[in-house]
Automatic annotation (TrEMBL):
PROSITE patterns, per database record: MYB_LIKE
Superkingdom classification of source: Eukaryota
Name assigned to this protein: Myb-like domain-containing protein
Domain named Myb-like: residues: 8-53
Source organism: Rhizoclosmatium globosum
InterPro entries linked: Homeodomain-like_sf, SANT/Myb
Amino acid sequence: NTSVNQGWSTPEEDILVKAIMKFGVGNWRAILDSGCLPGKNPAQMYLQTQRVLGQQSISEFTGLHVDIRAIGIINKSRTDVVRKNRLITNAGGKLTREELIKKLKQNKEKYEVPEQVWSTIELPNQDSITKLIMEKRFLLSTLEAEVAQVREQIMEVRVRLLFDACFIYEYSS
């Protein structure tokens, strides 16, 4: 399930994906301190990371600078796994420390974005987010005005139909 969860807009998910590439999986404090996702907390980021990755456990990626969306696409097509709520689950026992270190190393080699890429990622700052919010509020007020006009037109049609129905009733009586 790589769809955006309620409470996460597509732009916010895009920012989360870039922030994880820049700071590493599980580095929620750095993401929070960057100010790129105001209003989000570590638990929300963790859950959305699971959804985008398509798997429940993210420990095998902890600290890695990866594109969770790309891994999620790969995970979505896997048939050799057990899933629960469309997320890959661990069908075996808990990983030993050695197994986890081995998986981290494999995932680093296979998926990690080069440092020259992740170190140059620019995340939106508070000013750009404030500007985006203001643009969205303006768009929302425009759409609300359009809805009000449509409701008014519907009411006019209803009144006209009611008037016509009364006229037909009186004329036929």
